[in-house]
Amino acid sequence: MEALEIARWQFGITTVYHFLMVPLTIGLGLVVASLQTMWFVTGREQYLRMTKFWGKLFLINFIMGVATGLVQEFQFGMAWSEYSRFVGDVFGAPLAMESLLAFFTESIFLGLWIFGWKRLPKPVHLLSIWAATLASLASAYFILAANSWMQHPVGVELVDGRAVMTDVWAVLTNNTLLVAFPHTLFGAFSVAGGFLLGIAWYHLYKRRRDGIDTVDAAGKVVVGSNPAIGRDRTDHKVWLQSLRIGAVVALISFAGVSLTGDLQAKLMFQQQPMKMAAAEAACHDGTGFSVLSIGDIGSRNCDDVKAVVELPGLLSFLANGDFHTDVKGVNTLIPEYQQKYGSVLPDDPAYGERAGQPVQYVPVMAVTYWGFRIMITFGMLAAAAAAVALWLVRKGTVPESKWLMRLAVFGILAPFGANSAGWIFTEMGRQPFVVAPNPDFSGIDNVFMFTAAAVSPGVSLGELVFSVSAFTLVYLTLLVVEVRLLAVYCRGGVPSAMPELLHRDREDSEDRDSDGGTGGKDDGDVLAFAY
Amino acid sequence: MESLPTLWFVIIAFFFTGYLFLEGFDLGVGMLMRLFARNDTERRVLLNTVGPVWDGNEVWLITAGAMVFAAFPHWYASLFAGLYLPLVLVLLALIFRAVGFEYRGKVHSDRWRAGWDWAIALGSLVSAFGIGAMLALTTTGLPLNANGDRVGGPFAWLNGYAVLGGLAVVAFCLVHALAFLMLKTDGEVRHRARRALRRWLPIGLAPLALWAILVVMSHGKTGSWLLLAVAVAGAVAAWLLAGRGKEGPAFLGLGVFLVAGAGAIFSSVYPTVLPSTIDPAFNLTVANASSSDYTLGVMSVVALFGIPAVLAYQLYTYWVFRKRVSSVHIPAAHAVLPQ
């Protein structure tokens, strides 16, 4: 292993981990803001409970996204200083905009929301969750602007060997960005949909198992209640509505990711044809989409790969919208890339010992091929499950089946898997470039950068080994902590997020006593919420 | 005259200073979780003084970092890669601290809470030290070659200035946090914070003052000396005012000390943003490290709208949560229902 490989592993590990939290934050944020709006408009108790419960889980997850996001902001300079020098003029701007315009809004208004339940007027409190949620969408936009620029550099020219921005508008309206943004958002919503569905299913199942809810002869639910705090009839509404919202969100998101994914694929066939050929593990030009290919996909030599099941014409449809135009395969593309961008790494000190080595233009096909398919499969599974779930609960509750419940809970993972697989595919498929060349401009004088030249020359192997080990260890530990904490609060149900429910019965009698205390009436609301 | 790069040097200096002023007290409060608070209720008082605001304060650092990237890519690349190991520790420390703030109260167990107390305290200590070291080194230099890469191995940055800068920020944060607690709490915590502030203020501000004096002396600009004098006056005023129980003005005095002190340091080193200790020819300056005028122009427009908005709603938050917190406000801890 060399510094370059370690640095890539580190970026991959920290980014994939960060992006477990991000889609849930984006999707759940929008859900919570919508639920609170419903409460604000209707005043119904179940919406308050839903807001508080899903809001609590949102916060547990949010903080992990914040904490790991810091690493993202710093590690370009730390581990990829040559990259930072090359792209800083154009790539730093969206990051700075993200911080100044989105992160501040998100963190400050979320602070107001968490602590402001009783201190802020209701409309202002509602506005603060919306401000935080919309800021998280803006943040997604800016960071995808930066990423899309790496996939498809626009609005720049090469000055003294560096990419210099000439048109910020081109960067912020990059066509790659305009499809990646909705695709990513729908992906995030699908995560939130599956999350709501799985957890709500678990609670409806528990109510049936404990005999609180039963079904009549026609299979229709008979809602009951239990003296335990929070297990009343409203509690049933909380879970049933959450489940239905989750399923509908999952279905809409699937439609959204499919449509935007199709647009994105068509664009990618033009912008990075090698990525898409590698996604197919396709050596030769053709029109068929491989459902299953066997052979040594990981070898990068595509003669080792045989497509055993192929859907004729589908690949052509994905790329061009018809069923007969040939799509270029890896063997056709390699000479084209070599001619345009050179067949060996340039003789430049930035490449160190790698200078003069042949460029491997084919990404790791095992990753691109399977990444693409895992993304699609998990996405489809989640959508199918959501449709089935919606049908199964049509009479007001879930079947009393432990296995179905387990399936629903484990199903939460599918959209996460689809999101990660999609990103791993798109980033690994961009290799060997860190900034992929824009094919609209031709030749070696174009703005692009090989990953091999991007790493920090001054940072040693030992430093990188230390940091990748430390980050991995800490992240794994924190993942266990977060998942266990989420599980505790999920199991606890609504009362875990609303301790006030526990005191509600006793409140009337105790209130009069406590008024005589040191705080006095005015100070009583200093902390509507406290750590 | 490089007008846009100079403007961005000032904006970035403003963000680093704002970061130290705001996160300064929540880093300090984090450390005081173990150094000052005597029991769980007091720890929760401390935590709740910064609860609604610490995350917004931390964004000042993220923004300062992103602005350095956007406006001075060479400064960003050389400084962050040069300080690889200490920044890894800073990042890990900030992660533990952030998660600690949010997770500490979420499980009803003494062991859980004690664990996160240490995470918050040590996380605050290590990140304050590391950021202090980074800021000191960007004013005194790193061994950089012609390409701006650090030479001399993973610990080439470790010198007296790094330690002085680390100590300076840690000590300042502690003093600043005491002043903040005096202002934001009531009862026992408030009185103890005031007494501790009186005692520790001169010692706590000394390393930062020493760093500023060393930097100002080596460049010898008149304006910087004047700012330094203002800083010292602010410190003395804060000390006297704290003794008379003028809590708000004392806190402001510390603010004057920090802003003028940082101003003295940044104005001294200008136009150099990161000196090379190998050869002054390799120094990174506002002229050779900056982005194009086009990029800086775009970012200036963004800043023109962004900065006033940020200041406005951050001030609003502090106004909403302006009341003092004390032990009587802390509700009883409760267990999450296991059902």
UniProtKB/TrEMBL annotation, chain A:
Indicate yes or no for the key word Phosphoprotein.
Answer: no
Its membrane topology, per UniProt? Answer: Multi-pass membrane protein
Residue ranges annotated as transmembrane are 20-41, 53-71, 91-115, 127-150, 185-204, 238-259, 370-392, 404-425, 464-481
Keyword terms:
Cell membrane, Electron transport, Heme, Iron, Membrane, Metal-binding, Transmembrane, Transmembrane helix, Transport
**Lineage top rank: taxon:** Bacteria
Q: Is Cell membrane a UniProt keyword of this protein?
A: yes
Pfam annotation, one family = Cyt_bd_oxida_I
Q: What name does UniProt use for this protein? A: Cytochrome ubiquinol oxidase subunit I
Q: Which organism is it from?
A: Arthrobacter hankyongi
UniProtKB/TrEMBL annotation, chain B:
According to its record, how does it sit in the membrane?
A: Multi-pass membrane protein
Q: Where in the cell is it found?
A: Cell membrane
Task: Quote the InterPro entries the UniProt record gives.
Answer: Cyt-d_oxidase_su2 (IPR003317)
Would the keyword Membrane turn up in this protein's UniProt record?
Answer: yes
One Pfam family per UniProt = Cyt_bd_oxida_II
Tell me the domain of life: Bacteria
Keywords for this protein: Cell membrane, Electron transport, Heme, Iron, Membrane, Metal-binding, Transmembrane, Transmembrane helix, Transport
Report the principal subcellular site: membrane
Q: Where are the transmembrane segments?
A: 6-37, 83-103, 115-137, 157-179, 200-219, 225-243, 250-274, 294-316
Q: Report the sequence similarity comment from the record.
A: Belongs to the cytochrome ubiquinol oxidase subunit 2 family.
Question: What is the protein name for this chain?
Answer: Cytochrome d ubiquinol oxidase subunit II
Q: What is the species listed in this Swiss-Prot or TrEMBL entry?
A: Arthrobacter hankyongi
Name the gene behind this protein.
Answer: cydB
